[in-house]
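We now fix the convention by which a protein and its fold are recorded. The integers have meaning only within a learned vocabulary of local backbone shapes. The record below shows the convention in full.
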Amino acid sequence: MLSPITFGGAPRTITRPEAILQALIPIESTVSNEAGFIKLGGEHMKRKALVLSPESRLKEVCSDKCRALLNEHFDVTWNETGKDYTKEELAGMASDAEVIITSWGSPSLSEDALEKATKLRAVGHAAGTVKNLVPKQIFSRGVRVFSAAPRIALSVGEYCLAALLVSLRHLTTLDASLRAGQWRELGLKGRELTGSTIGIISASSTARAFINLLAPFQVNVLIYDPYLSEEAAASLNAKRATLEEVMSCPIISVHAPKLPATERMLTRELLARIPDGAVFINSSRGPVVDEKAFMDELQSGRFFAALDVFEKEPLAADSPIRSLPNVLLTPHVAGASVQGHLSLMEEVVKDIIRGLNEEKTSYEVSEKMWEVMA
């Protein structure tokens, strides 16, 4: 079963990237100078923070502004080993840490490390899901967990919009034709996005980012998500729909997490409902689609697909999908952008500071959210 993640109100027509992000996730504009400090004997002492990413990865997810913010508010131990720590090394360092900042490649926080981290108050992940990073027991210990997944959602939303526009206008096909020496022999005419009907599977944060970006095109949005109420759908300027209705739309975008309940949820019968000439986008997880049935449908050539994710990654060099002309392929990069990655740690650190200040947070992960994460 799918569960929506709510980070804000109804989408608005916004042009500036930072304003779009604010519409998706309300963020306070100020950060208190007291958050990273403990008052002892009349003096303020900085809380100890452990940043796990080595320099090679840190420069991708931590801006100079973020480094300054961390140093200003915390007594930081930076990873200067040139490599990722092992689980054992993390367990040996965790006893004094009050805040731990992680990213891709960081070791998961084992139960042993959690037992030793008696002073730990917050874990911030400058990346996506924390499902495999922290154990469920962390919540019962009162440790607060933060993830930059909502910031990544904006990058994914932009990817979906780009893939959709390219697909509707047959740009990859026309490019290949022109390079092969042809001119207009194919006789292809693209379709406009404006006024189209779009089916969305799962009202996740990436889906909401995509819907925000679709607002100027005056589209009709149908959403399948069993946890989404009529009122919540209306707040997104969308309508609730069945999975069958969504799979019958001329444009379909998949945003479902990989869970036992979503594995191969798009069955052969549902895939057969995709209309001829439709555009199908999957930027979430490959295993939510019945891969064999999907290949059969794709090989018919009756619709176009933009795929960023696959059941097995990396995609095999001899995969037959690589040769299909009606498929746009990208190597699981929908959430990867220069600006997006560089802002990940800063957004998480700011939110941890807000949390320590007992202010409203925007990137905090609850135990319930952890349970339905991919």
Notes: The longest strand covers residues 43-54. The two ends are 12 Å apart (CA to CA).
